[in-house]
Design goal:
Elements: E1 2-9, E2 29-36, E3 41-43, E4 46-48, E5 61-63, E6 66-68, H1 71-77, E7 82-85, E8 90-93, E9 102-104, E10 106-110, E11 118-120, E12 123-125, E13 127-133, E14 135-136, E15 148-153, E16 159-166, E17 174-180, E18 183-190, E19 197-202, E20 208-215, E21 217-218, E22 231-240
Parallel strand pairs: 14-21
Antiparallel strand pairs: 1-2, 3-4, 5-6, 7-8, 9-15, 10-13, 11-12, 13-22, 15-20, 16-19, 16-22, 17-18, 17-20
Length: 241
Amino acid sequence: MKKKPLTLLLALALSLGMFTMGALAASGTRTLEVTFKDIKLVVDGTEVVPKDAAGNVVEPFVYNGTTYLPVRAVGEALGKGVTWDGNTNTVYIGNAQALPYQVNGGTLYDGSKPDTSFSVAGQKYTKGAVLKSLQSSYSLHEDYNFEGSALWNTEGCENMTFTVGCAGNLQWDATLYVSLDGLAAGEYPLRWDGSPQTITVPLGGSPNVKLTLVAETVDTGRLAIGKNLAAFYGIYDITLS
């Protein structure tokens, strides 16, 4: 048995290829004394040599009576893809969540608060995402040109199906752009007065899907208009298969 001092930047403790330190999830740097005992990892009778994303061997260790294993090695040994989201410090193991793990220019509804919802075509929904976008031809403020997007992990899934429709009273059309692992994979015109559309996206093995809402260009005249006048569209009834 051997003990070594180990300095970890805990804000990155869950980074892929590093050790999971959930019990110590806090910002800042600490020096820990951990024990390396030549711990072996065996899955279904087969020994697995833990490695990081670069292929370097990483050794499990013991701290305060708890054994810590590299999350990537464990996930892949179980046949599950592993994805790290640095924006939210979240590790995803296996199939993506039905809800997006990252939403920019919009609002996530996770269903945890039944009294918090959005409406599309007169129906209320408590789970999904509402994206907003404004593309103005003239504005006193550059940040009045913006778009909304949401990103899903889709490792191990073949298709993604969802419904999208106008989630506000503003009469602005928009386009929903789909990209798979950063590559353009289609676009869907959306009309504010049209029926909600159900869309199925073939994933083709892509590890992630990004949906981006871009509103039609509007002439704002010589006066800037507020962001609350952006086009809003809701994405809901999301399934991954």
